[in-house]
## 1
Amino acid sequence: MSEDFAIKINQMHKWYGDFHVLRDINLEVKKGEIIVVCGPSGSGKSTLIRCINRLEEHQQGDIIVDGIELTNDVKKIDEVRREVGMCFQHFNLFPHLTILENCTLAPIWVRGTPKAEAEEIAMGFLEKVKIPEQAAKYPGQLSGGQQQRVAIARSLCMKPRIMLFDEPTSALDPEMIKEVLDVMTDLANEGMTMICVTHEMGFAKQVADRVIFMDAGQIIEENVPTEFFDNPQNERTKLFLSQILH
Amino acid sequence: MSEQTRDYVLGEHPELPAPDQRSGFVKWAMENLFSSIGNSVVTIVGLYILYLVIPPFIQWAIIDSVVLGAESRRECQAINPDGACWAFIYRRWDQFVYGFYPAPERWRVNLSFVFVAIIIAIALVEKLRAIKGAIWVALALVAACAILIVGGMFGLDRVPTNKFGGFMLTLIIGLTGIFASLPIGIVLALSRLSSLPIFSIFATIFIEFIRGVPLITLLFIASTLLSYFLPPGTNFDLLVRVLIMVTLFSAAYLAEVIRGGLAAIPRGQYEAADALGLSYWKSMRLIILPQALKISIPGIVSSFIGLFKDTTLVLIIGLLDPLGIGQAAIADVKWIALSNELYVFIALFFFVFCFSMSRYSLYLERKLHTGHKR
Ligand SMILES: Nc1ncnc2c1ncn2[C@@H]1O[C@H](COP(=O)(O)OP(=O)(O)O)[C@@H](O)[C@H]1O
Ligand SMILES: [Mg+2]
C-alpha cells in the first residue's frame, strides 16, 4: 500500500503541552512529487515537516515514510533520517568544520563511506550547487546564499530519497534567493521527492505538483498550483494570497 | 603617490597601497599611555612605583644573591648579607624535586618526567595526535610512569608513596587531576543535561555537593574519615585517596564550565545533526562537544590553573609538596627562617606552569577560531 507513496500521513495530531498544534493532518506524497506548503506564520508548517523526520514527535495518527512507520523505535527513526534530507531556514551548518567536512561527516559516520569516496561524492555535489571552490573554507566565511547551497549539498551527500525544506530562502538577502531556488529547481527536475515550506510563489508555480495551504494547524486547501493561485476556494487562502501577492 | 591617485579614469580605480599599519613604540606610547593629562599622570605614577619596587628586588634577587659556595645561612650572610641566599634552594634542590624518594631510584622519576613530556606533547600538538595509535602510546606511557614511580614490579623496588614529595608530587597530583577530570567533567555535564532523570539528578547532586564543600574538607575526609568507611585492614593508599578527591573536585567545576559551553550551542546544531541521522554519541562527539569545549576553553584552563595551585593544600594532611618540603627546610637550623627565598622560589615555579597554561589557552582559542558565527 505504501509502495507508490514516499510519505503517507494519516489522521495525525500533535500537541505542544496543551496546545493542539497540528489537527487531523492527512497527506500523501507520491515518489517524485514536489509539494509546496504555505500559510501564515505559526500555522504549524515547520512542525508538520519536522514530524516527517521525527525532529518532533506526533501523538496520534500514523506517519509512514518510505514504507517505514515512525514510532518510538530508534532504529526506524535513524533509518528514516538516513533517507530524508532537511534544509533549515538558518542553514545550521557546523561552524567548526570546513565546507567539505560538513558534507562528508554524515556519509562517513552514518553510512560508513570511506573518506576518499565521501570526499569525491561531496565535491560532486558542491559542483552541482556551484561552489566547489569554497570546499576548504569555513561556513562563517561564506555568504548566506552560499551557506544554504552548502546545506543542500550536505543533505544530498547522504543520497536521500526525500528532501524537506523549511523556508530555505527567508533568511536570505533578495539577491541570494535566486541562487538557492535555482538549485532547488534543478533538484526538482531530477525527480527528487520534495516538501518545501516556502512563500516563493514563483517557485511554487514553476515546479510544484501541489500547493498546500495551512492555517491554525490544519490543512485548509490543497490544489495544483494554477488552480490554487488563480482560483482559491477558501476565504482564508484568498486573504493570505492577497497579502503576499498584492 | 598623489599623481597616482589623480590619474585614474572614472570607474577604474587604481590599486592603492594599504595604509601603514605599523606603529612604532613612540606612537603606541603616545596613543596608549599619554593620550590625556589624566592618563599621563597615571602612567608616571605607575612608572614611579615600578621604579621603587623593581630595582631593589633585582638587587636582592640577582646582583647581591649567593648561589654557590655556602653551606648554611650564616655562610651566605658572610658572603653577602644583603642578597638572597639561593644556596639554600641549590643545596636542597633534590628534595624540592623528589621529596624523600630514595636517591639511587631517582632515575625512575627522571625517566617519568621524559615520558610525561611526551604525553603532554601528544595531548597538545595536533600533528602528533593525528598519528595513528598516538593515544595508545600516550596511555602506555601513563602506565609506564605509574609502574616506574611506584615500582614493585619488573624488578623495580617498591617505593612507598609517603616518600614522594616536592615538584614530583605537585606534578603527579596536578597532571592526574587535569587529565582525569576532563573526561569525568564532560560526562557529568552531559548527564546533568540529560533528559533521563536518573542521570541528571545524580549529576546535579554530585556536582552541588562537591562544589559546596571546600577542597581542604574533602582532603581531610580522604585522609581520616574514609578509613572509618573502609573495611578494617584495607590499606588504601593516602595518595590514591587524595588523587581521587582532587580529580572529583576538579571534575565538578569543569562540569559546570562545560555545561555553560553546551548551553551556548544553538538548538539548530542538534537538529542538523539529528536530521543527518547521527546518533546521540556521534553528534555529541563530532558536532556539539567540539564547539562547546572550544567556547569553554578559558573556563576550563582557569579550572586547571586553580587545581594546579590547590595541590599545595595537600601539605595540610601531611603530604610533602614543595611548600611542605620548604617549610621543613626552613625549620632546619642551618637554613633557619629563609622564608623570602622559599616563597619567591615556589611562587616562580607555580607562575611558570600557570602562565604557560594561560598562554596555551589563548593560542588554542585563536587557532580554533573559524570565522564569525551567523
Ligand atoms: N517547541 C515548541 N513548544 C511550544 N510551542 C511551539 C514549539 N514550537 C512551535 N510552537 C508553536 O507551535 C505553533 C506552530 O509553530 P511552527 O510550526 O513553527 O509554525 P510555522 O512554521 O508555520 O510558522 C506556533 O504557535 C508556535 O508558537
Ligand atoms: Mg516555520
## 2
Amino acid sequence: MKADTIVARSTPPGRGALAVLRLSGPATRRVLEKVAPELSAPPPVRRPTLAHLVNPADGSTLDRGLVTFFPGPASYTGEDLAELSVHGGVLVSALVEEACRRAGARQAEPGEFTRRAYLNGKLDLVQAEAVADMVDAQNAALHRTAVHQMDGGLSNRLAELREALVELEALLVHQIDFPEEDDPPVPVATVLERAGAVEAHMEGLLATAPEGELLREGALAVLAGRPNTGKSSLYNALLGEERAIVTPTPGTTRDALEARVQMGGFPFRLVDTAGLRSQAGEVERMGIEVARRYLAGADVILLCLPVDMDWGEPEDSFVAEWAPQVPVVVVRSCADRVPSTDGGAEASAADEGASDVLGGAGDVPEGAGSVAGRVMASARSGQGLQELRTLLGRLVFSGLVKMDAEAPVLTRRRQREGVKDARGEVAAFRQALRDGVPAEAAVSHLRSAETALEELLGVISPEEILDQVFARFCIGK
Amino acid sequence: MAAGRDGYDVIVIGGGHAGTEAAAASARLGARTVLITPDLDRIGQMSCNPAIGGVAKGVVAREVDALGGVMGRATDASRIHFRMLNRSKGPAVWGPRAQCDRGLYPRAVRRVLDELEDLELVQEMVSGLIMDEGRPRGVVTRGGQVVAGRVVVVTAGTFLRGKIHVGGEAGVDAGRAGEAPSLELAEALEAQGLELARFKTGTPPRVDGRTVDFSRVEVQQSHPEDYRFSGYVDEELPDQTVCWITWTGRELRDLIQENLPRSALYGGALSGRGPRYCPSIEDKIVRFPDNPRHQVFLEPEGLHTRELYVNGLSTSLPLEVQEAFLRTVPGLEEARITRMGYAIEYDYFPPHQLRHTLEVRSIPGLFFAGQINGTTGYEEAAGQGIVAGINAGLKALDRDPFTLERDQAYLGVLVDDLVTRGVDEPYRLFTSRAEFRLLLRQDNAQERLGPLARELGLLTPRQADALQRRLDERSRVLAWIRDSVARPDEVNPRLEEVDSTPLREPVRWVELLRRPEVSVEALFRGGEAPFDPEGDVAAAVEVEIKYEGYVERERERAERLREKAGFKLPEELPYMEFETISYESREKLGRVRPSNLAQAGRIPGVSPADLQNLILEVRRWRRSRPADASQEKGEAAAKAEKAG
Ligand SMILES: Cc1cc2nc3c(=O)[nH]c(=O)nc-3n(C[C@H](O)[C@H](O)[C@H](O)COP(=O)(O)OP(=O)(O)OC[C@H]3O[C@@H](n4cnc5c(N)ncnc54)[C@H](O)[C@@H]3O)c2cc1C
Ligand SMILES: Nc1nc2c(ncn2[C@@H]2O[C@H](COP(=O)(O)OP(=O)(O)OP(=O)(O)O)[C@@H](O)[C@H]2O)c(=O)[nH]1
Ligand SMILES: [Mg+2]
C-alpha cells in the first residue's frame, strides 16, 4: 500500500507577510498540475518558480505564489515534496490548502511531515525529537539547541561514543576470536584508559541534562515573601501583562498562579504565591500550603521584600530553610519608593564566592549570606527588571550559559536515562577489568552500553564489531 | 524408461560435510534416507585445510556431536595434532582445534555412515528435480536414474556452477580442483524461481615436506591432552605430530604487489565477494601493506604423507609467482609445490529464502544446507547439515520441526543469522556473533543439546547411556564443590603458589573458586580431586562459579529474548500496510518474514522503535481479524504458563 499525499500550512497562523504550505507524497506532482497548471510538467526541481495558484474546481485564481518542487528521496520527507509560498493571512493560505485537498491531497496530521521523514530514514530518533522541540520552542535557547540537534549535534556525539565503545569491544574480541594471530595483546591499562575517556564524555553529556530538560519544561521560578511585599506586582511586571490581582490589602493572593515566560533568553514557569504568615484564615492557610509545595519543587526562588521594609525574622528563617536547597534571590521590591541609586543586580554565583555588597538603601540582612543574589527592582518603574531576568537565566542555566552554543545538550528524560545506563555499564566494565574479570565476561558491559545508545538513536547494526576487527587487524591463517 | 529407485523418505544431494550430517541425522530418526554424491570415495572430503575446530568453530563441532553427529567422531579418529586455543583465557572461550589426516577423516566419516541401517549411498551426479505442484517428488541423475522421495536436502557445496582460477587465465569449470562442477542442478534450482548470487574463496599451495628446511622454522607442539570432540563414543586417536610456523617478509610483499594484476582475485576475473577473515595473501598485502610480516603455518596433510598445507598463503596468482614468493619465506626457499593454490567462485542461494528449519520458504519439502547457503567452513556446513537433516527426517515422518534458539547453541546463532540477517560475504562463525558467549561453550555442548537429541531419538541406547553418565557426573561434581569443605593444610600450599591468601578455617571449595586468582586447575592439579581437573566438567564448574554474576546476566538476557520470541508474527502479516514502521523496515520484514518479534529485532535496519510499532500494528491487525482472536489468547496463555 502506498502512502497518500498530505498538505498543511507549515508557518504558524498569524498575520505574517508570507505563509508556506507543504505538500508531500507520491501524488505531489499531480496536485501541482491541478493547483499550479502554469508550471511545466515535470515542475522545475529545487528552483522556486512563480505561478498562479487556482481552484481546480472552477479554475479561478486564488493567489500568485512561489512553488518549489523537491523530488524524493532527496527531500525533507524523503518523498516528492513541494513548498508553496503564498501571501500571508489566514484566508489565502486556507483557500490554497483547500485547493490542494480538492486536487487529491489530505490534510496532514500534526507532526506528520516529520514522522514521514523519520520513517523514510531521513532523521534519526534524536533528530526527530529535535524537530518537535523546535516546533514547540518558545525560547531562544531551546530553539538554538534544537536547531543544532536537528543537524545531528547530539546524534553525532552519541554515535561517536557508541563508535568508541564498538572499537573497544573490537580490540578485545579480536583477541578472543583470533588467538593465533601474532598481534600483541592490547594492555589492560590502555583499554581502561580508553573506556575512562568514554565515561568522562558521557559524564559531560549527563551534566547538561538537568538544564537541558528545563529548556523544554521551563525552570520553576517561585515568588515568595510576606504578604503585601509586591509579589503579584512583580509577577505582572515580569510577564508584561496584568495577570494577578494587586491590592494594598495583605493576603490578596490566595491561590498560586503559574505562567510561562522567557527571561534572559531562557524559559521559565513563573509562579506567584500567597504571602507567607503565621496568623492567616483558612483559605489563606491553604494557599500557603500550596506555596510551600511550589517552593519545594522550585529551580529558583524570588524572595520579595520592599526596600522600605526591614529585613526581619521571617526572612531569616525563610533563607535558612530554602537557601541550602535552591538558589534564593532577594528582590528588594518597590525600589521606586526610595531615591534612585544605581540599583541593579548582584549575583553571588557559587564559584565567585558570596558577595554581601548590597547597593543603595538596602540594609544588610543578617544571616542572608547564603542567598544567590540580590536585586533592587520596581514593578512600577520597571527599574531592575532586566537585571533580574538576566540574573535568573544565569543562575538556573549557568552550565548552558558557559557552554559552547554548538555543544550537544540532553533535553529529554529518555536521552538522560539512555546515557545514564550507558555510563553505568562503562563504569561497571572498568571495575570488572580492574577486578581481574576476563575480557570475554567483562565485554558484556560494553555490549549493554552500546545497546543503550543504540536504543536512543534507534539503530542497531550487529555487524559493526566484525567490521572493526577486519579493518584494524590483518586476519587470516 | 529410466531405472527407478523409490521407497525413500529423504533424498540428500551431496556427500560433503553438510550432506553427510544431514543424511546421518535423517537416518537416525528412522527416515529411509539416500545420499547421492558423484564420488563415494570422496565422502566427507576436506576441500581446503584439513583442520576441524577453532574458536567458535570448535564449539560447533561439539554441538554437532552432541546431536549425535558424525563430525566429532571422525575428527577424534583422524586428528594428528591438537591445540586448545585461548587456553590462557577463561574456559568460556576455549577453542579446541584439531589438525586431521586428510585420508583418515573421510574414511572415518564413511565408517560412521555405514553403521546406519536406514541410510543408502548412491554414486551419481544429480541433474534435475522432479516437481509436482510446487513440491519435490524426487530427483533425476546424470546416469538417468530417477530417485523418488518427497523430502530433498541439497548440499552441493562449491559445486554449483563452480569455476576455478589460477592466475590470470580464464577460469575452468570445476566444483573443486580435479572435480566436475554441477551445472544442471544449479539451473534446475534457478528454474524454481530461487534467487542466486556468487561468492568466491581461495586455497593456498601445498608443498612437498621433503623440500622444506625445518631448521629455519619454529615448531608448534601438539597439546598433550586426551581431548575428545565426541562425548558419546571413544574413538582411538592416531599418533600425534607437530606443525611449524614461519613468516613472510618484505620481499614477498614486493613480489605480490608487482604481480597483483595477474591475480584472478585481484585482476577482477572473479566477480563474487570473498571472505575478509580468510583473505588471500594478495588481500593481506593490499590492505595491510605496512605489516612487516604475516604468519604462515605449515600443517601436515597426514601421517603417511610428507605433503604440507601452507596455511596463510591462499592465492590465485600464476604458478611461477607462487613459486617465486615461496622462495622468499624462511624454510621454504627450496620448497616444491605439489598442488597449486587456486581460487574458486560458485553460486549460493541468499539464505533469507529459508526458514529456521532450513527449508526453502517457497518450496515445502526442499531443504538447503552448507556452503550453498553462503557460509564457509566445514563446521558451519556440518552444523547446517544436521539441522536440515533432522528437520527433513521429522518432516518425512510427519513430526514437529526442530529449531534452536540463539541462547541454546551456536547452531541457533548460525541459522538465525543466515535467515534473519542474510550474508554479504561468505559467513563464518565468531564468538562475537554470539550474544550468549558464556552460555555457549565447548565444555557444555553435550549438557545443552544431548537431552534434546535423546528426546528426538537421535541417540543410540549406548549413546543415551553415555549422556546420562555425563549429566550425573556433572551434578555430582557441582554438588561436591558446593557442599564439601577444604581444609587449610590441604589447600594452603596450592593457594600460596598462586599468591592467594591462605586459609585459617576450613571453607567450602566453592568459596575458594570464587577468588579470581584461583583456577580449578591450580586448586586440584595433581591432588585428589574426585573428578578430572582438566576435563569438561571442571571447565564448566570454573565458568559457572567464577563468573556466576555474568552467567546469570546472560541467562536473564536470554530470558528477555525468550519473551520477545514468545510474541509470534504470523507468516501472512501485511507488512507493507504497517504505516507506522519505516518503509525500509517494512520491506525487510516482508522479505524475511520473521516468525517472532525477537527475530524481527535482529534484521539489520529494523530499529527498536520499529519493533514497538510492530507490536501495536500486529495487535491492531489481529483485532481486525475475528477469526484470529484465538491466537492472541494463545499468546497470553503461553505467557501465563511461563510465569507459572
Ligand atoms: C578452494 C576452496 C577453498 C576453501 N577455503 C576455505 C577456507 O579458507 N576456509 C574455510 O573455512 N573453508 C574453506 N573452504 C570451504 C570448505 O571446504 C567448505 O565450507 C565445506 O567443505 C562446505 O561443505 P559442504 O558440505 O557445504 O560442501 P562440500 O564440502 O563442497 O561438498 C559438496 C558435495 O556435494 C557434492 N555434489 C555437488 N553437486 C552435486 C550434484 N549435482 N549431485 C550430487 N552431489 C553433488 C560434491 O561432490 C560434494 O561431495 C574452501 C573450499 C574450497 C573448495
Ligand atoms: N511604589 C510601589 N508600590 C508597589 C510596587 N509593587 C507593589 N506595590 C504596591 O504594594 C502593594 C502590594 O502589592 P502586591 O503586588 O499585591 O503584593 P503581594 O506581595 O502580592 O501581596 P499579597 O498577595 O497580599 O501577599 C500594592 O498596593 C501595590 O500597589 C512598586 O514597585 N512600587
Ligand atoms: Mg499577591
## 3
Amino acid sequence: MSEKIKFTIDGKEIEAEKGQLLVEVAAENGIYIPVLCHWKGVHPAGSCRICTVKINGRFMASCTTPVDANMVVESNTPEIQDLRKAIIEMLFVEGNHFCPSCEKSGDCDLQGLGYRYQMMVPRFPYAFERRELEASTPKIFLEKNRCIFCKRCVRMIKDEEGRSYFAFKGRGKHLEINLDTKLAEHMSEENARLAMKICPVGAILRKEVGFETPIGKRKYDHVPIGSEIENLQN
Amino acid sequence: MSKPIVATASLAGCFGCHMSVLDIDDRILQLIELVDFNKSPITDIKTFTQPCDIGIIEGGCCNSENIEVLKDFRKNCKILISLGECAIMGGLPAMRNGIPVRECLEEAYFGGVTVRDNTERIIPNDEELPIILDKVYPLHEIVKIDYFLPGCPPRADLIWEAVVALVTGNELKIPYELIKFD
Ligand code: SF4
Ligand code: SF4
C-alpha cells in the first residue's frame, strides 16, 4: 500500500501519495507549476528548470522531486516568479524566436509563458545564433532556431523498434537538436502529429498543413497557459 | 497646463505599428485633446521643433540612419517607448541576423528571383546611402528605452491604454489579451 503524506505548497495543505512527483501533485490540486520539458508518464528530464520551486528553503525542480511528508514548498512567490520569468527570457534570447512568422504562435508554450509572466522585453541581450532548418524529410520540418532543448522528442518519438528519430548533437553553445533523416524518411503520420504536439515550441512542424487555427481561436489567445489546471478547483 | 508632446518614428519597420496607432479609431479625437504631436510621419514634421515628452518608435536599427534618428529621439524626448516586435527584438528584418551582410546584398542584387539586368553586378554603394549594419539591433541595445509595448503590431488598445496611463499618471493595468508577440 502506498503511504499517504501531508505537506504544504504556498501554505496550502496537500495530501498525496509519498513518492508522487511534486509537479503532478500540484496540478491535481489545482496549483499550476509551469513545465516545458515535463510530460506526464514520461521519465522526467529536469532540463528546463521552469518548474523550479523552493523546498524547505532550497531551489529544486518540481518535475524530478518526489513528495515527502512535511515538505514546505514555495511556488507562487515574487522571488520564484522572477526566476521563472528570467528562464523564459533566457530561452527567448538564446534561440531565434520570430513569433510573427511562426506557425506555432498562439499555441506555443514558451510564448504562452511569456504572456503569463508579462515579458515585455528580455533582460538579456539577444544572441542571434544561427541554426539550420532541416526540411529534407517528407513529414516534418525541424526548425532548430526554435528548439529549447526540452528533450521531449528524443524521449518520446520512436519507431516500431524503439529507435529515436531525434537526438542532441554537440555541447554547450553548440548544442543542437538533430533529426535522423534516414529514419525519418519513413516516419508515420501518427508520429509526425505526435511530435508536433509534444514539442512545446514551433521547432517541429508538420509539412503540408499550416496555420490551421485562425487567430482568436488558438490555445493562448484568450486564457493564460495553466488556466486549465487552475480552473480545476475554482 | 500645456499638453504633453509626442513624437513618433518608423525605423526598420513596416509601418504596421503606426497603423495600429490609427487603429484606436475615434479615440484619436480624445488623443488630440490629451497630447500634441511634433516630429512624426503622422504630422509630416521632419525635424524636432521643440523638446518632446514622449517618443514612440517602431522598427529596429538596420542601418546608420536608423541609429542617427534614434539618438536624435533620445536627445529630444524625455521618455522613449519601443513599439512592437521589431523595435524590441529586431522583428522579421532581424531574420537576416547571422547571415553575412555581403551574402544578403548579393542575394538582393545578384541572385534573387526579382533581379533584372544587373549584368555589371553592382551593389549600390553611394555615399548618400545609409550604411547597412552587420545585423538588425533592438533599440534598447543602442540607447536607453523606458517602456516596451510588444506585439506585431501591438494591439491598438494596448497603445491607447499605455499612452493614456503615461499622460494621466494613472497605473497601467494590462488585460491578458493585450500582450501578444504576434
Ligand atoms: S516557438 Fe513559440 S516563442 Fe518561438 S517563435 Fe514560435 S511562437 Fe514564438
Ligand atoms: S525539438 Fe521541440 S521537443 Fe525536441 S528538444 Fe527541441 S523544443 Fe523539445
## 4
Amino acid sequence: MSVTLPRNSFPLVVTGIAFGFLGLFLIYPLYRVFGASFLDASGTYFTLHNYAKVVASAFYRDSVINSLTITVLATLTTTAITAPFAFAVARLPVGGKTALLSLAVLPLVLPSFVSAYALVLLFGHAGVVTHALEWLGIPFGSIYGTPGIVLVYVLTLYPYVLLPTVAGLKALDVSVEEASQNLGASRWRSFWTVTFPIVIPSILSGALLVLIETLENFGVPFVLAEDKPIMAVEVYKLFVGETDTNPASAGVLGVLLVCSTTIAVVIQRRYLGRRRFATGARRSPPLIEAGPGWRSLATLYCWTIVLISLVPFFAVIEISLMEYRGPVLHPHFSLENYAELLRRSTRPLENTLLLSTLAAFGAALLGVPIGYAVTRVRSRLTAILDIVATMPFAVAGTILGIGLIISYNSGWLVLTGGWLILVLAYVVRKLPFTVRASSAILHQIDPSLEEASINLGVSPMMTFARLMIPLMLGGIVGGMVLTWVAVASELSATVVLYSGQWQTLTVVMFQALEGSGAGLAAATASLLIFFTVIPVTLVYRLLRRYEMSLL
Amino acid sequence: MTTVTIERVSRSFGSVHAVREVSLEIRDGEFFTLLGPSGCGKTTLLRMIAGFCELDAGSISFGARRIDTLPPHRRNTGMVFQNYAIFPNLTVGGNVAYGLHARKVPAARIAERVATALKLVHLDGYDARWPHQLSGGQLQRVAIARSLVIEPEVLLLDEPLSNLDAQLRVEMRGEIRQLQQSLGITAIYVTHDQEEALAISDRIAVMRAGTLEQVDKPDAIYRDSTTPFVAEFLGVTNLLSGTITRREGAHAVIKAGATEFHVEGTVTGLGEAVAFCLRPEALRVIAPGDAIPDGWASLEVLISRVEFLGALTRVETQLADGTMLRVALLDQPLETLSVGHALTLAYDPRRVTGFKAA
Ligand SMILES: Nc1ncnc2c1ncn2[C@@H]1O[C@H](COP(=O)(O)OP(=O)(O)OP(=O)(O)O)[C@@H](O)[C@H]1O
Ligand SMILES: [Mg+2]
C-alpha cells in the first residue's frame, strides 16, 4: 500500500490564495452585513426584529416588489427584443454588419446612470424634447418610474444578450441544420426544433446577466425612480443617508437582494451546467438567402435598436458642449463645461485611470490562475472555488462596499479612506470577468501541451508561467481591458467606498447630477467615454478574430 | 541503460478499473508495445509511467530507482503525444530546445543538440519554421526530436501515428523503430493496431480490461496465443471449440461438430471441452490426387465465399456441420476456387493452438 501525495502543488497554492483573498474581501464582509441584519440595536444580541420591521413596513415591502417587477420586465423585454436582433446579425444578410456589431458594444461603456440622466435631460420634466413637444402642443407622458427605468435597462444591457447569442449561433455547426433538413424538416421547422434549442443556453446566460445587473443596479433608479422605493437604492440610503442611518435595516435589504441574485446565479449554473451544446463548429452555417423585403426589414430592425441605444451617447456629448447657467440649458456652443471640469481638479480623472489599471492587473493576477485551476484541475476543492469565484456576480456593489466598510474601518486591518479598499472592491467584483475570460481561452488550448512541457522537465508552476501565459495572452488581455472599462464606469461600490481625494469620474458625475451641474456631468461622462471607447473597440476586434465570447 | 520495472500497479476511476495489478519488466533498450482494444488501460498505464496519472497501488522503477513518487517533470521520460502537442507559440527550433532550456544546458550546446536532433528526424534546416507551416508527419517528427533531444531514460509513445494517413504510418513506424535501435533507448509504445505492434516491437503486452493478457515476442504472441482473446485480437483467425475424443501418437484429436482436428500436445484430459484456434494462413489447399504432407492432418470443406485481394485470397468455407472456417491462400489460381465446390485442406497440427477451457 503506497500513499499517494499530491505531486503538483500549484493548484493547491492557487486555490489557497484565492480562498484567502475572497474569504477576507468577499465572504467576511458579506458575513458582517448578514450579521448586522440579525443583531439588535446595541449590536450584541441575536434578533429577528430587523426583519420584522422591514417586512412590516409598506415602504420596504414595496421596494422589494418594485425591484423584482422592474427586473422581470427589463429582462423579458431585453431578451425578446435582442434575440431576433442576434439571429438577424448572425444569419441574415443585414447591411453594415461590422459597424453594427462594433456600435452595439458601446452601451457597455457608458455608465447606465448616465444614460438614465441623458434621458432625463431629453424627456424629463424640463427636458429638451419635452419642451419642444409641449410647445408643439403634443402631450407627453412621464419618463420617470418603471417605464423609464426598464427602457434604460433595455438600451444599456442588450449587448449582454446580443453578444453570447451571436457567438452561440456562430458556433453552431452547419451539419446539424443540414441533418435536420435532410431528415425532412422544413427550414422553419429545423430552426425551431434544432437551431433555437441549441442557442437557448446562450440566450439564457445573457438574460440572467441582465437580470442580475438590473437587480443590483443603483444608479439608474437613483436618477429615474423619483419617489418609487427600489431595493438597491434604499440599501444605499439606509447606510449612507444623512438622516436615518441604519446598518441593520440596510443589512436586511442587502440580504434580500443578495439572496435574489444568488437564486438567479444558482439557477443559471444548474440549468446551463446540464446543457452544454458545444458542437465545436467546423463550418458555421451560411447566411440565409432572404428576399429584399426581409432583408430591409432585418436591417431596419437592427439599426433602429442600435441607433436608439446610442441616443444617450449623442445627447451626453451634445449637452457637454452647450452652455449651462445654473440648471438652465442655453442652446449655445461652449467649452465652458470642460473648462470648469479642468479648473476644479484633474484628480478624479487620474484616480479613475489609476484605480482601473490597478484593478485590471489585480483581477488578472488573481483571476487567471483561478480560471486555470477551475478549468484544468478537477477536484472538490476547485469545484468549490468555481462557485466562490462566481459569487461576486451575485453581490451588489453597494452591499460589498458596505460590508468592506463595516469590516475594515477598525481592528487589525484598517482600509477605509484609502485607495486600496476601492481596488479590492473592484478586483472582487470583476473577478468573474477574468476567471471566465481565462477559462474560455483555456478551453481552446489542448491539455497535452502542458503535459508535454512538464514531461520535458519544466515544473507545473513554470509551465504555467512560461507556456500557458503566452498562449492565453489574447484572452487575458481581453479580460483585463473589459475589467478596466467596467471599473472605470463603476458606481455602486465606489459611491459607498470613496473618500475625499479618491473621487473618481463616476462620483463626480453622480454628485453633479444630485446637484445641478448637468453640463459638468455631461462633460465628465464624455471624458469617460473618450477614455473607454477606444480600448473596448480594440478588444472586440481582437475577440472577434479569436471567435470567442467573454459574456 | 534503463530497465523499467512495474510492480502490481493499479488505478481505478470511480468504479472503472482502468489498470489492475499489472506487473511488467521492460528490458534495457527494448522496444516494448502495449497493445489492446480501446479503453483497456494502455494510455493510463503509460501516463502512470510519465507521472500524469497517480497510482492507487504498486510501484514503478527505472533501474533500481523508484520513480512513481517523483513529480512528472523530474522523471526524465520523453513522451510523444497522439496529437503531437507542439507548442504553437514556439518555432520548430524553440520546441526542440524547450527541454534543454529547462535543464539549463548552455546556449552553445543547445544549438548543437537541436541541430543534431532535427537531423535525426530528417528535418535539418527547419529550425526557424513555425508549427502551422508543417504537415502532420513533420509535426510528429518535431515531437519525436523534442523528446529525444533531452536524452530521456525512457521514450513513451501514445499512439503517435494514429493521426497520420495509412502510407505515412507505415513509413514513420519504420523510422521510429530504426531511430530507437540506433540510439539503443528503451521505448514503450502504445497502439491498438496489431499490425503496427507486430511490425516494430521487441516484445508486446496484450492488455484487456486493465489486466495483462499475454506478454511475449511478436511471433510468439501471434502463433502461440495463450488465450482466445489474444488469438482473436491479433488478426483474423478461426476460433473453434470441441471435445477431446482420443489421442493419436503425439496428437490429441478434437471433435468439433462433425469434423476432427488434430492438435499437438495434450491440451487437457480426454472428454473435456477445449477451445482452439487455427490461423487461416496455416491451411493449404490439396489439389485432387496430391498427397497430404507428412504428419499433417486434412479436412473437407465447401467453399461459400471468395474474396480476391491481390497477393492474398481470402476464402470462407463451411465444415460439414456448417461452421465457418476462414482460409487465406497465397498466390492461389482463382479458377480452383468456385463457390459451392468442395475443397480438401491440410494443416500442420503444430499450428493449432489449444486453450484450456476457460
Ligand atoms: N481521467 C479519467 N477519468 C475517468 N475515467 C477514465 C479516465 N481516464 C481513463 N478512464 C477510463 O479508464 C479506462 C482506460 O482508459 P485508457 O485511456 O487507459 O484506455 P486506452 O487503452 O488508452 O484506450 P484507447 O485505445 O481508446 O486510447 C477507460 O474505461 C476510460 O474510460
Ligand atoms: Mg489511449
